[in-house]
Amino acid sequence: MKRRSPFFHSLLTLVLLLTLVFVARSFVPDRVQITILGTTDLHGNINPIDYYTNKADNRGLAKVATLIKRIRKEHSNVLLIDSGDTIQGSPLESFHGRKNNQPIDPMMLVMNSLNYDAMAVGNHEYNFGLKVLEKARGEANFPWLSANTYDIAKQQPHYKPYIVKEVAGVRIGILGLTTPGVPNWDNPPNYAGLEFHEPVSEARKWVPILRDKEKADVVVIAMHMGLGEDLRTGEVSPGQVAHENEAISTGYKEYLYQNQNGTPKLIYPKEVAQAKVITPYTGS
């Protein structure tokens, strides 16, 4: 999403605890606890400092790595996903993207060391052009996901739309979505040959595939966009499509909508899963 200042996009850590209840599945216990850790809008922040002032700040992947390692030690069934805007935003990534792109992308290097399972593609991934983007993507040990980003010529998804991970006998589908607003903010050469489809219809297309073909017990959407409705048209976002998914890890914190209790709005079938936010927000 369009950045307002370097200080608005430091780090969002979203931790979802899903307690899944399955019946008549002989190879799965009656109750399985799966922890899904989510980061988003890291914007090239690795060390817990403000790169512009060189002062300590509550941000950075190195800082949240401590939380990731602690939760993995405390819980055996853990997934780690990111919701985009990863390889742009700090002086470190700006230098890497514009001046010396030969070494491995710094964010991919650190995320590989933390064993991420997947990443949804954000709009700022395109800021340095497709060559830089594809290089970073190729250096990742995890898939970049975006079900609604299509190659114009082939009319096929440019990225993997989803992955399925089996954790403790539970098949978890992770669907990636990217804001279709990329052409509003970036230069056309930076996304040449690509188009961004409306995300709700794409979610409705791919979720049944995950359910029926891939036999996913749980569907998690990792998306780089807001959770709410379009303020101009009232159209719903994927996060408001009832009973389509169990949990949402969302990028772009300016539009992280909250309910009356002050917790992020998560859409899930109550008879299947219960979601609890442990650490909904760190950083500025």
Write the layout of secondary structure elements.
Elements: E1 12-21, E2 31-40, E3 49-50, E4 55-56, H1 61-74, E5 78-82, H2 91-98, H3 106-113, E6 118-120, H4 130-139, E7 144-145, E8 149-151, E9 156-157, E10 162-167, E11 170-178, H5 182-185, E12 194-196, H6 199-213, E13 218-224, E14 247-251, E15 275-277
Parallel strand pairs: 2-5, 5-6, 6-7, 11-13, 13-14
Antiparallel strand pairs: 1-2, 1-15, 3-4, 8-9, 8-12, 10-11
What this model shows, in words?
By secondary structure, the chain is of the alpha/beta class. The protein has a six-stranded mixed beta sheet, covered by helices on one side. It has a four-stranded mixed beta sheet with strand order 10-11-13-14, with helices on one face. It has a three-stranded antiparallel beta sheet with strand order 9-8-12, with no helix packed on it. It has one domain: Metallo-dependent phosphatases (Purple Acid Phosphatase, chain A, domain 2, 4-Layer Sandwich). It is globular and about 50 Å long. The longest helix is centred in the last third of the chain and has 15 residues, at 199-213. The chain has helices at 61-74, 91-98, 106-113, 130-139, 182-185, 199-213; strands at 12-21, 31-40, 49-50, 55-56, 78-82, 118-120, 144-145, 149-151, 156-157, 162-167, 170-178, 194-196, 218-224, 247-251, 275-277. Mean pLDDT is 76; it is low at 2-26, 238-247 and 250-284. The protein has six helices and 15 strands.
